[in-house]
Amino acid sequence: MTNLSVDEFADVFRRTPFMQDLGVELADIAKGECTTSLAVQPRFLQANGYVHAGVQASMADHSMGAAAFTLVSPGQYVVTVEFKMSMLRSAQGETLRCRANVLKPGKKFIFVEAEVYCVSQGKEQLTLKASATMAVIGGTT
What we know:
Order of helices and strands: HHEEHEEEE
Helix content: 10-25%
CATH superfamily: Hotdog Thioesterase
Strand content: 35-45%
Shape: globular
Number of helices: 3
Largest sheet: 6 strands, antiparallel
CATH class: Alpha Beta
CATH topology: Thiol Ester Dehydrase, Chain A
């Protein structure tokens, strides 16, 4: 992983202002992988009572960035340069869980995928599939 310990990484993750506003929590982090969770709140729902796509997309994007960040060198960071998502079904439940995995690491670009699941009464349903290209910034590339 980067020059950060797991605890330091979790602290950086928690201090990201927008994720803090949403309440996205880091559940697990490993080299090239990140799992996050989010308790669904009424403010996340769209007019029909389903979790807004923007909430799921933000969670997926940040989780993919975190997974990519685990692979960069000290002094480097990643930014999203391309993002695609497909909504597979409406999300209605108590919790969202996102699993992000690096598919193709690189010195300048890292390709990542994520899946967002809606958890209702202990059962997961896949609601969103996303992919992103992260640019590696800073340090020596």
